[in-house]
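Query protein
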Amino acid sequence: MASDKRVKVTLACEDCKRRNYITTKSKVNDRERIEMKKYCRWDRKHTVHKETR
């Protein structure tokens, strides 16, 4: 199956520690945990979100 190379990951806010987003990432290209700036609706601002296990 072609989608075996992409896995679902959950992104958690670094400020409030809530898990706000679910996205996919490529296992081949991104070996380490991803982090990106996303909007946190509880903090009402853009914060860094990191991948959780």
Remarks:
- DSSP finds no helices and four strands in the chain.
- The longest strand covers residues 6-13.
- The domain at 2-52 is CATH 2.20.28.120 (Rubrerythrin, domain 2).
- The CA atoms of residues 5 and 29 lie 9 Å apart.
